[in-house]
Structures are given as C-alpha cells and as structure tokens.
Amino acid sequence: MSRPAAVPVPPVRRGLRSASRVTARLAALVVTVVTSALVVGVVAPSSPADAATTDVRTATSTQLYGTGPYLSPTSEAAKNATALRTSDPAGSRAAATIARHPVATWLGEWATGSLLTKTIDSATAGAAASGTTAVFVVYAIPDRDCGGYSAGGFDERTYDSWIDQVVARVAGKRAAAVVEPDSLAMLSNAACTASLDEQRYRILSRTVAAFTAAGVPAYLDGGNSNWVPPATMAARLQRAGVQQARGFSTNVANYYPVAQEQAYAQEVSALTGGAHYVIDTSRNGQGWRGTWCNAPGAGLGATPRVVDDGTAADALLWVKTPGASDGTCNGGPAAGKWYSAAAQSLVAKAALALPVDTGVVGTVDTVVGGLAGVRVTGWTADAAAPTTSLPVQVWVDGSPAGTGTADRPRQDIADAYGTGADHGYDLAVAAPAGRHEVCVGTISVAGATSRLGCETTDVAGHDPVVVLDGAAVSVGGIRVRGRAADADDPTATLSTTLLVDGAVVRTTAAGRSPRDVDALPGFGAAHGFAAVVPAGAGTHTVCARAVSVGPGVDTTGTCRRVSVPASAPRARLEQVASASHRRVTVRGWAFDRERTDRATTVVVRVAGRPAVRIVADDVRDDVDRSYGVGVDHGFSAVVPAVSGQRSVCVSVRGIGAGGDRSLGCRTVRVR
C-alpha cells in the first residue's frame, strides 16, 4: 500500500451472515474452477491508448490486466522489510516475502492533494512500464465500516469531489478499481442505519459510472460466500449500478477458499447479467479460521494472477495488504498498522499455489439456533461419486456436536448438477444457551474432510432472555428500554420487573415492537419494553428481571449505572380564574422525580389571604402518557380570596435535593 502505515484503514471483514449460499454448477466448479481453471493469462502488454479505447465491460481479462497486477517496489511490505531489518529480523524476512507479490494500493481520506496525485501517478507509471495493471482500492465512503475498527470516510459532497480527482488521474491508464469493500455487504449489519442504504446506492452508482467512462474497470463490493445470500447481494449490486461497472469483488480481507468463493461469485454473476469478478486471495491459504479479525493460523493464499478460464472471473488479487492489522483484536494494533507477528504467521502457513480439489462441493443453507440446540440445513456432493450420499459432521465452537448423512431429497440440486436428488441434509444438534459458532463439514469418498461453512447463531435455554438496551435520565426519573422473551413460549409477552439499586420499583410488559433496538434472535420483534422508573439525585444501578413462563428461573440481565442530577419538581400551572364570589380556581399538575410515587404539595398565595396548601394527587392520564410517572399528579382547587384585583402566586414544594419550583404569579380580578 502507498498510504502511511499509521492510518487505520483497510477493511476488516466479516462473514457468518448469510442464510443461503448456492454454488455454481458442480462440473464447472470441480473441473473448471480448480483442476484446470484460474489459468494465468499471458499476453503482450497493451499500451495506455489501447486501455483507453477498450470497453471495460466487455473486454477480456487479459486485455484489462496484461501480464498481471502491478508490483510496487514501495509497498507497505517492502517498507517494513527495510524498517524491521535490525529490530525484528524475522519480521523483516516475512515482510520481504510478502513484498515479492503485487498488492492493491489503498486510497482513502489519508490520501488527498499532492499525496493522492503522487500515489496514483507512481503506480500507473510503473504499470505502464511493466505491462501490468495498477489495482487501486477506494475506501473513503461516508460512515465507512458503520463505526467498526475501520470507521471513517468523507461526507458525501467531499467524497464525490475526491472520486473525481481519482478518476481524473487514472483515466486512460492501465488501472483497475476495487470500490469500497464491505459497503454493500455491511448493509446487513445492525450497526448500519436504514437511512444509509439509499446514500450508499447513490454514491456507488456515480462512482462506478465515472470509472467506466474513464476506461477503468471498477468492481463493487460483493461480500463473500459466507456473509450475504447470492440473491440478496445481486439485488444490492444492481441497485448500486453493477450494470455500469465491470463487476464486483469477493472475499476482500477474508479467508474463504478460492473454489468456495468462485462458486458463490458465479451465482451472483448469473443473477447480475454476467458481471465479472475478482477474488481476494491474500490470506485464504488455510481457509476460514474462525474469525475475520487477525485470524490466528491464517496463511497467504494463491499468488495474484489473471484468470482466463471461460468463467466470469477476471483475476485473483491480493486486495487486503497481508501483514496489515484488521484492528485491535487477537493481539493486533490499530487497523491498517503493520502487525509483524501476523505477517510471519501468514508466510509460515502460506499456500501460494491453487489448492488441489477434493471433489466435494456443497453449502450451509441455514444455521438456526433454537431451544437448547441448533438446526443446520444444506447439501453436499462428491464429483467422484455423484450418486453417493456423503456423511455430514457438525461442530459447535470447535467441538464435535453431531453427525448425519446428506441423503434428503433435493431435486433442485439434481436438476442443476445431474448428481441425483439425495444430497440434502437437515440435522439438529444439542448446544447450551448462548452465542456459538457452528461449522458443518463432510468427508469425500476418498476420505478427505472438507469444511462446508460456518455461521454464528444464538441458542436459547429454558431461562428467559432479557436485555437492557438503554437507561438514561429523563424528566420523570430514568427512562429504560429493552427486550425480554422466553424460548419456552416465544410468543408470550413477559412480565418484566424493573429494579433501582436492588429495589423493585415497577413492573412492565415486554410486548412492544422496539424501533431503536434489534429483535431478539429467533423471537421476533414484539418483545420490547420501555418505562420510566423513579430516581432521585445520585448514581443508581438499574436492572431488568424477566419472569419465566416455563421451567426456567427468572433472569436478571446486565445492569446499567446512571447518574441523576438534582432537580426541582416538574410542574405546570394551567389555570388561574375567579368563577365565583371571593373564590379563585387554580389547576395544573406537578411531580418530583425524586419520588414519583408520592404526591407533591402545591402552595397557593392570594394577596390578603393566608397561604393554602394543595396535594397534587388528582388523576391526570395525560401526564403519565407524556412522562411515564403515574397518573396521580394533578391538582385543582378553589381557594378563598378578597374581591378586587389580586395577585395569585403558586409554587411546588420539592421532595428531594432539587428544592422548590415556583410557577410564578398571575393577576386576576376576584369577584
């Protein structure tokens, strides 16, 4: 990469999100993809003029990439090979190994002005001289990574201007652009707001259209094979303008094997009118390692190369910089900084050649957590014995959890691959309550074990689940919100007890559809609760306890601490009038959040008469609806007064440390 190593960027990528992944045709996957496919295309280097006149949407991969992606002599790995030579010799050697292979150049908000120009011009000049193609990654979209390890980006107006500068520098030159990794797949993430979708589609459509007009192939984010289902990803790509782009990228910064990624990408391609794609192989040499973030045991993957195999694949690329941290996880530094220990491990476990195929393909269609267990469905088959039903193994958090056989009818697989129908599986395995990683694998007829995929799911026990999502100071005390449900009766509205400093202060029903929190996995949305609990000045611990409807026990979720400042009573004087001889009517409401279960005292003073005290305990449903403090906080009284023009002053006596509240004085003509 040509950016400063200290800038936290390249993406950090997830997975374990999809509900369905269907591979490409079995014969194409087994024979074309792995055994004889992904062939390096070698052609005579094209000139910049040729690149400028080529329609990047219809050109061949070799026309676009020449002899391959550009290898920068000043890559991040090359810099670290030099920098670590004395202080970390082993790290230096690992960085030097990585530096021998071409890696994409990342451009983001750290690269502007003259630095942006220099970075692009240096790479495109080097590519022109070597007959290769400079691969750039643009990574500065607004609300990038939705607040994750690689958070950042420009605002929309600045981003559009910045993209115009990038496009102007690469126009007519041998270059390719991977556009905003994760930007589309992350729309499935709860951390991304619903309003983000339309902005993303608008920005991405403009961006890829600009690159295409400049003669530069652009690839939108295609997630990976274990994140978003192909049909969902295809729909997002179409909304983001894939028809104006060369295609999409997959597996960026992730670890999934080439065959699995190409099977997924071929299906997405078919659903998007034949869009082309590139696969990031920078760290997939050992396959999925149980986490996306600085995965222990990962290895460098297949070396970057042009693909010319008759599929929609254009190239295998090292998009993610091997050795750059994903973030502060698994011992790593901030995102984008060089992580020497990880670089050494990647080199030690490298698998730079394409893997030898086991002949086994298949998918994990669903992983659904339930009550004390998990259900997994999918299919698998072996090209060497297409009518044989294979054994299926399930692991929960790395431990064997169950076995079965893929022998259920799947006519869709038979129709698509000519393998016979009996290749589906539908297994249930036991698992304790909590969040678990569930993996599914099979064994080929030759005895080789293959991993079909992994997903994370939540398993419920007999005890209810309760989550306190928020607790914040409000006018009436502390406003709490959360969710509660019981797997023994997923449709039940649970009684939820709210506690402040260990004392029960209110009971509420968890039956709302919360607007600003996620639904509890597996229970639906109608299990939210919201209420206001009384709390005086000071720091308080607020908890929620769900009452079990089955054989489990009541559960108290994680509590929250809230500091409440001292406050005078909240009140409103709504009426001061004289409707009868020597009488004044006053009306309004008042409460003190120090003790909303108690009525406050209202003091009325009329000039020439002694003060009158009123208890604010009339029913006022509207006050409870507005502030959640109960209904008994209204006042209405008739007090004696001397005829004539009189001043009527009203105040409320405070219960807590906030003191009294004056409601002011009004002048009224007393009859």
UniProtKB/TrEMBL annotation:
Q: Which family does it belong to?
A: Belongs to the glycosyl hydrolase family 6.
Q: Which residues form the active site?
A: 145, 182
Q: Does the keyword Disulfide bond apply?
A: yes
Identification of the protein by name: Glucanase
Annotated keywords? Carbohydrate metabolism, Cellulose degradation, Disulfide bond, Glycosidase, Hydrolase, Polysaccharide degradation, Signal
**Which InterPro entries does the record match to this protein?**
Beta_cellobiohydrolase, Beta_cellobiohydrolase_sf, Glyco_hydro_6_CS
EC nos: 3.2.1.-
The residues the entry assigns to the signal sequence are none
Naturally occurring in which organism (per UniProt): Curtobacterium salicis
Origin: domain of life: Bacteria
